[in-house]
């Protein structure tokens, strides 16, 4: 079967991006934005059905590889698609898809219905869609249940227009993006390869590269710390931490002074029964942008400054720290597309050993051997050790590639924004799991949607705009 891949001609894109086009049927410029706005409440109602499901990774059972929640969310997502008139297929509760059109080639859109744990201090019920003006709150509203709904309604509006499609358009709904993307591994085993497409799980205007991924685990060898526990996911900054240490004369007052000089949102130091307990509350942020957060692990710096002598405190401050640049293990590196980022997400104590998760996003031009050579000799001393875990390759499409151009043009034509350009990000998406796709929206640069944090939200105005962008994107992808 002959396929046309994203590296081939974009000759038809200009034809398909005009206000009036013909493509096996008529799509006119009848007020698309008004049509989308008229569907806004319906979209929110369906988004609410998805948000109501706690679809974080659960206990696997027969026929439900990721537990009850993800399977329920998938069935609801497919039911919404069926009600909108799409053919649907459930792929063993790993993922499923809604499809329209005919032809051998597939324009793919891949979003996910699983979520990270709730975590943090929510103002709103994370599992009840709550609207306050333009803001709509709930876990998954932006990551990634909302974008799934946006893509689905973009398909609906194109379908209702009567256009005859030269390719199939397939919206894949995954159930395991947040914890390994095993859903897409299953898709690749049982389904056809995509010809081109996108995943609505990142930023506008367009993502043409994703940094490589690397995980590490740090362990204490000797420590006087009685316990230290904090964080809720490995791919977000440790935003709260409770540490218990032996009491020393004057130490409580010194710690309070040191903590007062940090940027923590909140801290509390208490002393009782010859122990000091330190509670630190930082600011959550995704591991791909850790400098936007405040790591509650700053407690370690405060312990050292207050004069608390401890082997693992020394190790943490020397090798991990809160700088987010990997300098402690020899990884302060960058290329023309961005810097390496280094994030401590979870700290916990088991059987007297403190462990820390480390999430690293590697610039796209650095290879595995480059990284391993740089960290050699920097992972262990008498106070602690670090083990290297998973290493994932980067993803990169040249800026001038037809796939990038097609999606970027859709964004510019709808929004008029020519200032922001296609970019490389530290986040990892389904684009690394499926061939011939890149990440495309719907987040706007400079807006903190609080994904992976408390009070995650989506903006209704941006939701409506994203539907129009995705309509244009699908039309453009039909031409390559």
Layout of secondary structure:
Elements: H1 13-16, E1 21-22, E2 26-27, H2 32-38, H3 40-51, H4 68-83, E3 87-91, E4 95-100, E5 106-112, E6 130-132, E7 135-137, H5 145-160, E8 168-174, H6 182-190, E9 196-199, E10 202-203, E11 207-210, E12 212-220, E13 227-230, E14 240-246, H7 251-260, E15 266-272, E16 275-281, H8 299-305, H9 311-320, E17 334-335, E18 338-339, E19 341-350, E20 353-362, H10 368-375, E21 380-381, E22 384-392, E23 395-396, H11 402-415, E24 423-425, E25 437-439, E26 442-443, E27 457-459, H12 460-477
Parallel strand pairs: 5-8, 5-9, 9-25, 10-26, 11-24
Antiparallel strand pairs: 1-2, 3-4, 4-8, 6-7, 7-27, 11-23, 12-20, 12-22, 13-14, 14-16, 15-16, 17-18, 19-20, 21-22
Mean residue pLDDT: 92
Number of strands: 27
Low-confidence spans: pLDDT under 50, at least 5 residues?
1-30
Continuous helix count: 12
Output the structural class.
alpha+beta
Order of adjacent strands in the largest pleated sheet: 3-4-8-5-9-25
What overall form do the CA principal axes indicate? elongated
* Secondary structure: helix percent: 25-40%
Biggest sheet features? 6 strands, mixed
Radius of gyration: 24 Å
Strand content: 25-35%
**Gap between N and C termini:** 16 Å
């Amino acid at each position: 079967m002959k396929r046309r891949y994203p590296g081939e001609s974009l000759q038809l894109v200009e034809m398909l991006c005009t206000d009036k086009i013909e493509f096996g049927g008529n799509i006119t410029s009848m007020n698309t934005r008004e049509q989308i706005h008229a569907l806004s409440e319906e979209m929110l109602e369906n988004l609410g059905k998805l948000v109501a499901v706690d679809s974080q990774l659960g206990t696997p059972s027969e026929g439900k590889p990721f537990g009850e929640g993800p399977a329920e969310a998938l069935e609801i997502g497919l039911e919404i698609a069926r009600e909108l008139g799409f053919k649907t297929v459930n792929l063993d509760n790993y993922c499923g898809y809604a499809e329209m059109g005919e032809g051998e080639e597939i324009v793919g859109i891949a979003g996910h219905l699983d979520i990270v744990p709730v975590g943090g201090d929510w103002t709103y019920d994370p599992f009840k869609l709550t609207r306050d003006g333009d803001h709509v709150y709930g876990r998954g509203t932006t990551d990634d249940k909302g974008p799934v709904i946006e893509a689905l309604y973009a398909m609906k509006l194109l379908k209702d227009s009567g256009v005859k499609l030269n390719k199939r358009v397939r919206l894949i709904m995954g159930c395991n993006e947040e914890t390994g993307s095993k859903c897409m591994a299953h898709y690749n085993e049982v389904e056809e390869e995509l010809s081109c497409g996108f995943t609505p799980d990142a930023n506008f205007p367009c993502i043409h590269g994703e940094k490589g991924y690397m995980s590490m685990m740090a362990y204490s060898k000797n420590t006087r710390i009685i316990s230290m526990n904090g964080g809720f996911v490995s791919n977000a900054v440790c935003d709260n931490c409770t540490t218990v240490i032996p009491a020393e004369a004057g130490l409580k007052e010194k710690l309070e002074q040191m903590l007062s000089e940090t940027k923590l949102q909140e801290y509390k130091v208490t002393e009782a029964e010859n122990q000091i307990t330190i509670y630190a509350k930082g600011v959550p942020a995704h591991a791909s942008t850790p400098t936007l957060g405040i790591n509650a692990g700053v407690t370690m710096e405060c312990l050292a400054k207050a004069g608390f002598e401890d082997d693992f405190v020394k190790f943490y401050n020397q090798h991990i720290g809160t700088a987010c640049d990997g300098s402690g293990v020899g990884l302060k590196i960058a290329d023309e597309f961005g810097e390496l980022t280094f994030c401590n997400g979870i700290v916990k104590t088991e059987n007297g050993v403190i462990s820390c998760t480390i999430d690293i996003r590697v610039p796209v031009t650095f290879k595995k051997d480059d990284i391993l050579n740089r960290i050699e000799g920097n992972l262990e001393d008498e106070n602690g050790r670090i083990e290297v875990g998973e290493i994932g390759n980067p993803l990169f499409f040249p800026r001038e590639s037809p796939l990038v151009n097609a999606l970027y043009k859709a964004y510019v034509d709808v929004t008029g924004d020519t200032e922001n350009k296609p970019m490389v990000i530290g986040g990892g998406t389904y684009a690394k799991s499926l061939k011939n796709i890149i990440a495309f929206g719907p987040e706007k640069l400079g807006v903190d949607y609080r994904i992976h944090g408390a009070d995650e939200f989506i903006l209704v105005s941006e939701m409506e705009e994203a539907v129009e962008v995705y309509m244009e994107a699908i039309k453009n992808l039909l031409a390559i």
